[in-house]
């Protein structure tokens, strides 16, 4: 990015009232770290493909491996990370294990990000 395209203030004036207001509304450091970790996990292309696929359909590991064209062990590893971050969940049906997005918040995040890049 070219810095000449960034507008900056010509004077250094701090609006303490705004700073105080935003400071009160900012999440605590623990929450910021967790949010950062969520975005970090989703920044990996393979994990993002998994999440996008699961936003459309509940799938098993074998389905995901075939769809994304990676090994079952690689998919399992990525699903462990996504499950640990509460991005995906699973249900067992006999010998089958089906994965889906953990909750509507994850879907909303995906929808908002897709809408943002299309604007």
Task: Briefly summarize what is shown.
This protein is mainly α and 119 residues long. The protein is 61% helix and 12% strand. A hairpin with a 2-residue loop joins strand 2 (88-93) and strand 3.
Plain-language structure description:
By secondary structure, the chain is mainly alpha-helical. The chain has one domain: Winged helix-like DNA-binding domain superfamily/Winged helix DNA-binding domain (Arc Repressor Mutant, subunit A), CATH 1.10.10.10. It is built from 6 helices and 3 strands, in the order αααβααββα. The chain has a 3-stranded antiparallel sheet. Strand 2 and strand 3 form a beta hairpin. The protein is elongated, with a radius of gyration of 20 Å. The model has no long low-confidence stretch (mean pLDDT 92).
List the helices and strands and how they pair.
Elements: H1 16-25, H2 29-42, H3 45-56, E1 59-60, H4 61-68, H5 72-84, E2 88-93, E3 96-101, H6 104-118
Antiparallel strand pairs: 1-3, 2-3
Helix pairs in contact: 4-5
Helix content: 55-70%
Low-confidence stretches: none
Based on Cα principal axes, name the global outline. elongated
H/E element sequence: HHHEHHEEH
Q: Which key features would you list for this structure?
A:
119 residues, mainly alpha, Arc Repressor Mutant, subunit A, three-stranded antiparallel β-sheet, 61% helix
